[in-house]
Design brief:
The chain is mainly α and 235 residues long. The protein has helices spanning 4-34, 42-64, 70-78, 84-108, 111-114, 132-155, 165-184, 190-200, 208-228.
């Protein structure tokens, strides 16, 4: 049985890794483009985000559950799989992990590289016909799918993919990013936005990335819990 301190540490570390990979890949792509090179663009960014999540969930899900995402933690809380205080502490650990990753990038990456992309902070497509409502809806749908897959593979011990749940979650993020990165930045995770936004002081459309993911996550968690986990114990 792992202690709460151990769980909080891996939530911090996991979120740190996810944000470092997600924002770092965008900064790396910007650097290469500025120097007339390319490393794959969208595909590289999507893979970095998805693989980092897959690796960390696979590595430490047995310790903390492998959330690394306030939206996933919210889904666990509303389905009574963790208590209120634990959920709040998970959120704090996740947000601090995101901040640590963001400020590390600010420290080591030249400002001329990260500033043009706002340190990889997700934002909406700069078109007049793609509104904040569109962004919230898209982020809600993406996060719904992500959390549904998380519950179906990582949480549901009867799933055939239970031992490979981390990679199922990572692939879900990769697919989501490949489809929607140009429109919303494919965050699916409030911490993924909060850390870079604070470090880069880029708060444009920030509320989109809390409202959309939290709504989608809670809906997915409740649906999967009520339909498929009724016989599984909760708090």
């Amino acid at each position: 049985m792992y202690s709460l301190a151990q769980k909080l540490f891996v939530e911090f570390l996991g979120t740190f890794t996810v944000v470092l990979a997600g924002s770092g890949a965008i900064c790396a792509d910007q650097y290469l483009r500025a120097n007339g090179q390319t490393n794959g663009g969208l595909l590289t960014i999507a893979l970095a985000y998805g693989l980092a999540t897959a690796i960390m969930v696979s590595a430490v899900a047995h310790i903390s559950g492998g959330h690394f995402n306030p939206a996933i933690t919210a889904g666990f809380w509303v389905t009574r799989r963790i208590g209120t205080m634990t959920a709040l502490l998970y959120w704090i650990a996740q947000l601090f992990g995101a901040l640590a990753a963001a400020f590390l990038l600010v420290t080591v990456v030249p400002e001329s590289v990260w500033r043009p992309v706002a340190l990889g902070t997700p934002d909406l497509a700069p078109t007049t016909d793609f509104t904040r409502m569109h962004g919230m809806a898209l982020e809600a749908v993406l996060t719904f799918i992500l959390v549904f897959v998380f519950f179906a593979t990582v949480v549901d011990v009867q799933s055939l993919a239970n031992r490979l749940g981390g990679f199922a979650v990572g692939l879900t993020i990769t697919v989501g990013a490949l489809i929607t990165y140009p429109f919303t930045g494919a965050a699916m995770n409030p911490a993924r936005v909060f850390g870079p936004a604070l470090a880069a002081r880029h708060w444009s459309n920030h509320g989109v990335y809390w409202v959309g993911p939290l709504f989608g996550a809670i809906l997915a968690a409740v649906i999967y819990d009520r339909l498929f986990l009724r016989d599984h114990p909760s708090l």
